[in-house]
Amino acid sequence: MSFLYDKKTNEPFRISRSKIDLFLKCPRCFYLDRVLGISRPSMPGFSLNNAVDNLLKNEFDYYRERGEAHPLMKQYKIDAVPFKTDKITEWRDALHRGAKVIHKPTNLLITGGIDDIWENKNEELMIVDYKATSTDKEISLDDEYKESYKKQVEIYQWIYRNLKYKVSDTAYFVYCNGIKDKEKLDNKLEFYVSIISYIGNAAWVEPTLFEIKRTLDLGSAPEPSSDCEHCNYVLKINNIVK
Question: Whose CA is closest to 218, among 39, 21, 1, 34?
Fold first, then answer.
């Protein structure tokens, strides 16, 4: 499968969940990335966040193997258990495998790597995402930048429905909030862990895929977005440096 888009081929073109998010933020940056191979400057990895993710996966997998609800699920009165499937490792591998489905009208292969999936008593799958932070504010989904979190789980809901699974509109965020007011570290980092529910609406996903396909087929990059800090940076540089 080609890394860059070529409209002359009939081979499905892979679009990850993160690239859909990039398109929503800036179609121009998306085009430069997917068609011309010019990516935004990379960010350093968040190793502590990845460590928290791995520990949560191990913890929920412990209860998955036993077919039991995690104590946190009981605490928040979530009538569900971690979904038991031999595909969980594959679905979590966003880089190489992940969950994937071809959107036939556009011939786009949509992929994404989930953190977890729970199953409720109605045999519906519920998308679960792990988040790690350290803040004195009350944990919520109200911040503007967290709109991308909501879009993330909605894309996963769309993928699994198109894989013919029965998927609940309710998704969950397991939030680990690092405790900063301890007198000393004592060789361990402690967290307050909470669960936030979110009712997703994936109706926007398919129309967005058609917009993505039209953008890929343009033949030239869209105009810079006034809201994109990357586009604005390049424009300012071009105006100053001759």
Answer: 34
